[in-house]
Amino acid sequence: MSAEFIRFVVVGVIGFIVDGGGTWVLAHLGLPPVAARIPPLLTAIVVTWLLNRSLTFRTDRPKSRAELMRYATVALSSAFFNFVLYSGLVLLGVPVLIAVAIATGLLMLCSFFAYRNVVFR
Questions:
Q1: 37, 23 Cβ separation under 8 angstroms
Q2: What backbone torsions phi and psi does residue 60 show, to the nearest 5 degrees?
Q3: 9 and 108 Cβ atoms separated by less than 8 Å
Q4: Are the beta carbons of 109 and 75 closer than 8 angstroms?
Q5: pTM (predicted TM-score)
Q6: 8-29 pLDDT, tens digit each
Q7: Which of 27, 112, 120, 121 is the most exposed place for a label (fewest CB within 10 A)?
């Protein structure tokens, strides 16, 4: 396993804590589980972009609109499939945090290659 992928996984764990923890808190505050996922998911996307940019892929290029657009495209595509999978699992009765973990884990590898080859190439 490459050091780059290990850093990606560490950043992903941080993103999972932001996403899963925020979803769990909002769901336990009374928001429906599907609605509770949206704000933490968006926050996790921003957090992981900043960390992946500086730690995982170690780019020293200035931030650009093109990079932001590539990142947003990959992140939102991944988030869409993550959200669909998460929602389906929740509707099937899977507990919220486990549903977040399953959805996130399944999309991690695809996201890594897309970020590496499309965003931070």
A1: yes
A2: -110, 5
A3: yes
A4: no
A5: 0.76
A6: 999 989 998 999 999 999 999 9
A7: 121
